[in-house]
Amino acid sequence: MSDLLWDDVRYFFDLDEMGLLPDVRVPDASVEDWQAVLDLISSRGWKCQYSEGDVVMPVPRAEAVLSRPADAECPDLRVWPTADVLAIFRFHAAEEIDFDVDLRELQGQERLDVFCGFPRAIGRRLGKSVLMDPQGDYGRPVLGFDAEIDRVVLLAEPPVM
Predict the structure, then answer these.
(1) Using CA atoms, how far apart are residues 72 and 31, in angstroms rounded to an integer?
(2) pLDDT > 90 in the chain, percent
(3) Beta strand residue intervals within the chain, DSSP E
(4) CA neighbor of 98 nearest in space, from 39, 42, 41, 26
(5) Which residues make Cβ contacts (< 8 Å) with residue 38, sequence separation at least 6?
(6) Angle (CA) 8 78 104, round 5°
(7) What 8-state DSSP symbol labels residue 20?
(8) Blockwise average pLDDT, block size 10, the chain, 161 residues
(9) pTM of the entire structure?
């Protein structure tokens, strides 16, 4: 059964309303949470690619990535939960796990279900909420995985059209 129905949430997957790359995040995270996400990616067998600048390298431990010098280039980890859905994790700070998704890849019920499964898996592993904010509108989540009820839910109401 789907956590969300496409007809109820399509507004929040509109590129003009949300931006191309909305921000998905786990607030109040730790280095241990980051490592748990890296372990989840590995255990699920999701294809991934870690890079620092243009250099692709094996995925390091979270502690190593998050302890790099402040002036070092921010590495990213590209994760494909399915062949045609990409999430890009950015290692900005230990205190928040954040990643972008491309809304062009998340159109329709089937893709929505794939998307919901991704933050659900992360939230379940961490026992924490995973929130999606419109691109550039940090702190105003529109949907997310609610750890208390164990499902992805709407956190905002679409405007009445």
Answers:
(1) 18
(2) 84
(3) 23-26, 47-52, 55-57, 76-82, 85-93, 96-101, 130-133, 143-146, 151-154
(4) 26
(5) 59, 61, 62, 77
(6) 35
(7) S
(8) 89 91 95 98 97 94 92 91 94 94 94 95 98 92 95 88 61
(9) 0.93
Over residues 54-101, the pLDDT tens digits come to 999 999 999 999 998 878 888 999 999 999 999 999 999 999 999 999
Angle between helices 31-44 and 109-126 (to 10 degrees): 130
CB 6 within 8 A of CB 112: yes
Backbone phi and psi for residue 70, each to the nearest 5 degrees, phi listed first: -60, -30
- Residue keyed to tokens 């590129």: 15
Q: Which stretches within 45-152 are classed as H helix?
A: 62-66, 109-126
Alpha helices per DSSP H over 11-158 = 15-18, 31-44, 62-66, 109-126
Give residues with Cβ within 8 angstroms of 154, minimum separation 6: 4, 8, 9, 12, 142, 143
